[in-house]
Write a structure and sequence with these properties.
The complex is a heterodimer. Chain A is an alpha+beta fold. Among the domains of chain A are: 2-117 and 139-168, no CATH class; 170-233 and 369-413, no CATH class. Helix content of chain A is 54%, strand content 11%. Chain A has 24 helices and eleven strands. In chain A, the strands form three sheets. In chain A, strands 1-2-3-4 form a four-stranded antiparallel β-sheet. The longest helix of chain A has 31 residues, at 283-313. In chain B, strand 7 (184-185) and strand 8 (188-189) form a beta hairpin. By secondary structure, chain B is α+β, with helices and mostly antiparallel strands. Helices cover 41% and strands 19% of the residues of chain B. Chain B has a six-stranded mixed β-sheet, with helices on both faces. A six-stranded mixed β-sheet of chain B has the order 9-16-15-19-18-17, sandwiched between helices. Chain B has a five-stranded antiparallel β-sheet with strand order 11-10-14-13-12, with helices on both faces. The chains are: A alpha+beta, B alpha+beta. The A-B interface holds A 214-216, 219, 393, 397, 400-401, 403-404, 407-408, 429-433, 435-437, 439-442, 444, 462, 465, 469, 488-489, 492 and B 206, 208-209, 211-212, 214-216, 218-219, 222-223, 225-226, 232, 245-250, 253, 359, 404, 439-440, 483, 486, 505-506. Chain A: Residues 277-294, 309-338 have a biased composition (Polar residues). Chain A: Pfam families: RMC1_C. Chain A: One of its GO terms (cellular component) is lysosomal membrane.
């Protein structure tokens, strides 16, 4: 019976549903089954009231496979999905547990978090009087009797006639766990609020370094970030630029709409988040977007707005902020009727499994979540460098792990990083290691690095030599000749200049060296060398000057 | 006569050259009858600050090999050496006398520490004057001294602490005797000859690894370094007999590397005797952990001499029973540890690294902990000051190492073995070569198995060429110490082989090409190819 009802528009899943049904106990009530779509996969969550567990099934095209079991701490639960996160509302406890099932890990992302009603800021800003009153009145009734959990991330508050939307407050979530790698993993998979994700990720990496957490942990964090970057580079290719502009457009286009509409916002709170992107590939979504597109469009706009406002206030919330928002009453009611009307059978009382899909954001932003190595260097290493000067060894080890992650991901590090690393090594007097790293190419040769080595060579002549040799290997002929001259190897420099036709170095430099060495034959040789090499040399001032000097020396 | 003799003679004839350039070689024609009576080589160490009064000359002698040499003879050898040293100082106060060549003997000098001299006396067999290269012989003196200083601290410090020199003599006796045992064939010392002209003592041989593997290794050293919570441990990683990575400064690396090659690497350990290999098998049997395949390395006992002045009780322990170079000791002493923990392998001993080189502190004692996994040998150096309760602290470090680093160790070992080209990895077809960088103390050479195939003529010529270059280098160094001079020499040996030496920007390349038909052009192209490495 159940299957027939639930899958009105999903004929493909009919079979599937019945199978999962077969697995279930006979006492299964419709209210105990929830369907969510995350990462383009469809999951069915079935509440086992006796065992106090939530069984997770994944629907494949032709099979249903049990994936895992989530614990339940409340007799009444509701399930929502926001931004590919499964949220299990423990209604009795009034908290939400978040799961990110991407990697088939069924551990919660963080400890159970409360919902927070958000929207005060926007209220005042918008000056929406009715909303104000409502919001203040609303405070105590989170998870009230009248809440209907709808579709992916909406809550219909029948008593107050409000519709809430769930948001993820990433910052709060990030603050609630100390497990940096897993939180980074989580953040990097989020598709909403990209700039936030990025800033947060960078901040997390920075703090891990500043707190001198164990290197292995930092290494894991780097792996995650670079992994996601290289993945996004592969999938996205060169389209990043286009995407970014489209994002901007979206935002700007939202602005006016929000302002006009947000009037009735309330601070209700359910969780989390912004709109979900789903792959259009799955039938569910396409259905969804068809059915709800109008509504969702509106919601998306609002969501974007609330998000912003929630950020402003989030600092004072300790747990998760749930921003939900009531859309203006007119809208909300229409939505509700829309939704409920569509599938009365399935809806049961509190849960409404729906796949989500906002077509408008589809596929965007993948690139911009990812943090490029250059960004890492600029916003992590450069920033922490000063503070870490007391303990360069740790920072060196961190950079080393970063390099390792880079090479694992097949990425190149910017030369600045090598320069920084060399400086760090030198200031802890680890010149031997510089030589080792240069020779096994951990420090990849570049002109910048060579110059840095030469600079450091003032304290340590072997290091200078490394730099000079690097110039030669990189075929930076001009710099190499100049460096040789600086060291007083003017004859060698001359030989080299002849061999590689380096004509950019001033003859006077060579001549000056020869004079400094007080060697008459050499000065004469250098003079005649240039006279032959460049016929016009004899007419220059240098020629006559050094000729004069030569004659005096003789 | 040899070329060396040729350009020596004008100098010694006039004697005027010495003050100007400083004499590194003095040709002495007088008969050294005293030394002539002894077969084989002698090695003595003496202190010029001791025994200044007549009748107390014996006090100068800190070590003499062979030990059963008559005292009078010992005195006469040392007397001669002292005389030469004093004499040459008149002309060349800056540079030490380095070698005396007489008809039957060759005296090689090395001033290990101010006024502490080591002299190696080698007997010349007929017609072999060019088979010895004094640079190579001096290398032995240098090596033995720096190893000694690594384990026992400088000789001078030992003497200052105990003017009777009993401990210094005791240590020198056991240590240098153990060291020389590597060279002894029967009762005689078999010192390096022309056959070793493609080796260079006092350099480290590196394993070339790809960048990816190198980063992996670095990540391992990071883990190793964090074995102590508050202090960073230094470490050296070797694969087979090649250095993979180090966090120590050059000279400390060299000393530890040398020691590891002599006694610690799998190949060195396998020559340590039967008891050893038996124990190693035991390690394999106990195969229930990831580390089960780890070979045990030996354990040496703690060494307490440095704490002597603070804790008088330490005096007894330091006496003669710390012999890091004694092979049997290494394997035997390990028993205890292996019984306690089959998987690990370690040596414990406080290693006071050469204080001059040890930049942290003038005299820092370090514990050495050796761990081995298949062909990977890890030397972990732990500052003794950071371990309040020595033994326990080491046990803690070991546990930490096993817990945290074992995964990395296994990974690194696998990657290195996969990339390892075997013994002949650095063989270059057609050439026999040695490429060394004395500044960085690194060298790479043709594998010994390939060098053997060279004919005697080539090796002799090569040996002589190296001797010449050594002289040339030291001369250039005296005239301008900051400036590297470039040389290139190609010689056609008697057997038509090309013998080539090239020094360019401080890097030295010696090679032999036994292709008689080839032209000089061919030879120099071959050199070009090498110089790009």
């Amino acid at each position: 019976q159940f299957s027939a009802g639930g899958i009105v528009k999903l004929p493909k899943f009919e079979m599937v549903m019945s199978k999962s049904e077969a697995n279930n106990k006979p006492v299964l009530a419709a209210a105990d089954v929830h369907i969510v779509t995350v990462y383009g996969r469809i999951y069915c969550l079935q509440l086992d009231r006796v065992g106090m567990a939530l069984n997770l099934y994944r629907f494949y095209r032709d099979a249903v496979v049990q994936q895992g079991t989530l614990p339940v701490y409340s007799s009444r639960i509701a399930v929502s999905a926001v931004d590919n996160i499964i949220m299990v509302h423990q209604i009795d406890a009034k908290v939400v547990i978040l799961y990110d099932v991407f990697m088939d890990s069924y551990a919660p992302i963080s400890a159970p978090l409360p919902l927070l009603v958000r929207g005060l800021a926007s209220n005042s800003k918008q000056a929406a009087q009715p909303a104000d009153q409502q919001s203040s009145a609303y405070g105590g009734t989170l998870y009230g009797e009248g809440w209907n959990f709808l579709i992916p991330d909406l809550i219909c508050d029948a008593e107050n006639g409000l519709l809430w939307k769930l948001h993820l407050d990433l910052e709060a979530i990030a603050a609630s766990t100390s497990d940096a790698p897993s939180i980074l993993e989580f953040l990097q998979r989020r598709k909403s609020d990209l700039s936030m994700v990025k800033t947060l990720s960078l901040a997390i990496v920075r703090t891990t370094i500043l707190e001198r957490r164990p290197i292995t942990l930092v290494a894991k964090a780097m792996d995650i970030i670079l992994d996601s970057y290289s993945r996004s580079m592969k999938t996205v290719g060169g389209a990043a630029g286009v995407r970014r502009t489209s994002e901007q457009n979206q935002q700007s286009s939202f602005q006016p709409v929000e302002d006009s509409r947000v009037v009735s916002q309330e601070p209700p709170g359910t969780m989390i988040g912004p709109v979900i992107n789903t792959d259009s590939a799955s039938g569910v979504e396409s259905r969804q977007s068809q059915s709800n597109s109008g509504v969702e469009h509106g919601i998306a706009n609002l969501a974007a707005h609330v998000d912003r406002s929630s950020l402003n206030t989030s600092s004072d919330s300790d747990g998760i902020t749930n921003t939900s928002r009531a859309v203006s009453q007119a809208t909300s009611s229409s939505q509700i009727s829309d939704a409920t009307g569509k599938r009365p059978q399935v809806v049961g009382e509190d849960s409404q499994p729906l796949a989500s899909g906002t077509s408008m954001q589809h596929g965007t932003h993948v690139a911009s979540v990812a943090i490029s190595p250059i960004e890492m260097v600029q916003s992590v290493f450069v920033l922490v460098e000063d503070e870490m000067m007391g303990d360069p060894a740790y920072l060196i080890a961190v950079i080393m792990e970063f390099l390792r992650s880079l090479s694992k991901a097949g990425l190149k590090a910017p030369p600045d990083l090598y320069v920084m690393m060399t400086a760090l090594l030198a200031c802890s007097n680890r010149y031997a290691e510089i030589a080792l790293f240069v020779s096994n190419k951990i420090l990849e040769p570049s002109r910048e690095l060579a110059m840095q080595l030469i600079e450091l060579g003032r304290q340590h002549s072997l290091t200078r030599k490394l730099g000079v040799d690097m110039l030669r290997e990189r075929c930076l002929h001009h710099d190499y000749v100049a460096a040789l001259l600086q060291d007083g190897y003017y004859l060698e420099a001359l030989r080299y200049a002849r061999k590689y036709k380096v004509i950019t170095v001033q003859p006077s430099l060579f001549l000056e060296e020869a004079v400094a060495k007080n060697s008459t034959p050499n000065l004469a040789a250098v003079l005649s060398f240039f006279a032959e090499l460049t016929p016009s040399f004899k007419t220059t001032l240098d020629y006559s000057r050094y000729r004069h000097i030569l004659l005096e020396m003789v | 006569r040899s070329a060396r003799r040729l350009f020596q003679s004008p100098r010694s004839a006039t004697g005027a050259d010495c003050p100007a350039g400083g004499s590194s070689v003095v040709s002495v024609k007088m008969g050294l009858s005293s030394a002539a009576e002894i077969d084989g080589a002698q090695l003595c160490i003496f202190d010029l600050r001791r025994g200044q009064q007549e009748g107390q000359e014996l006090d100068k002698i800190l070590f003499f090999h062979p030990a059963d040499c008559p005292i009078l003879l010992q005195l006469s050898v040392i007397g001669l050496c002292e005389g030469i040293i004093t004499f040459t100082r008149i002309f060349s106060p800056e540079d030490d006398c380095e070698v005396i060549e007489s008809d039957k003997h060759c005296h090689v000098f090395y001033q290990a520490e101010p006024d502490i001299w080591m002299v190696l006396v080698v007997q010349k067999i007929k017609d072999n004057e060019s088979t010895l290269r004094f640079g190579a012989l001096q290398g032995i003196l240098k090596e033995s001294h720096s190893l000694f200083a690594m384990f026992h601290g400088p000789i001078r410090t030992l003497l200052d602490r105990q003017p009777s020199a009993e401990f210094a003599r005791g240590h020198l006796h056991t240590f240098v005797t153990d060291y020389l045992s590597d060279f002894s064939v029967g009762k005689k010392l078999q010192l390096p000859t022309y056959r070793d002209s493609l080796t260079e003592r006092g350099t480290v041989q590196m394993l070339t690894v790809s960048r990816e593997v190198a980063l992996e290794v670095q990540s391992l050293t990071t883990v190793l370094g964090s074995c102590l919570r508050n202090v960073i441990c230094q470490s050296i990683v070797l694969f087979e007999d090649l250095l993979v990575s180090t966090t120590l400064p050059l000279d400390d690396t060299l000393n530890l590397y040398t020691y590891a090659i002599l006694r610690l690497t799998p190949s060195a350990l396998s020559s340590n005797g039967n008891s050893w290999s038996y124990l190693r098998k035991g390690g394999y049997v106990n195969a229930d952990t990831t580390l089960s395949s780890a070979n045990g390395a030996a354990a040496a006992e703690r060494y307490n001499s440095r704490s002597r002045d603070t804790s008088p009780g330490g005096q007894n322990q330091m006496h003669h029973n710390f012999r890091p170079l004694q092979r049997e000791k290494l394997s035997k002493g390990k028993d205890g540890f292996v019984a306690a923990d089959f998987a690990t392998t370690e040596i414990r001993g406080a290693v006071p690294l050469n204080p001059i080189l040890w930049f942290h502190q003038a005299e820092e004692r370090m514990y050495l902990c050796v761990y081995q996994h298949k062909n990977l040998t890890i030397l972990l150096v732990i500052p003794a000051s950071s371990l309040i309760n020595g033994e326990e602290g080491i046990a803690h470090v070991k546990r930490h190492l096993l817990e945290n680093a074992s995964q990395n160790i296994v990974t690194v070992e696998q990657k290195l073995s996969r990339g390892w080209g075997g013994e002949n990895a650095y063989h270059v077809g057609g050439y026999r070569y040695i490429l060394s960088d004395p500044n960085r103390k690194v060298s790479r050479a043709s594998p010994p198995g390939k060098v053997i195939t060279l004919s005697k003529d080539s090796l002799l010529a090569l040996n002589r060429l190296r001797g010449e270059i050594d002289l040339e280098k030291s001369r250039a160094k005296r005239s301008d110490p900051t400036h590297d001079k470039d040389y290139e020499v190609c010689i056609r040996a008697k057997n038509n082989a090309w013998i080539i030496a090239k020094i360019s920007r401080g890097k030295e390349l010696y090679m032999a090409i036994e292709k008689g038909g080839e032209t000089l052009l061919y030879a120099s192209t071959a050199v070009e190819k090498f110089s790009n490495r």
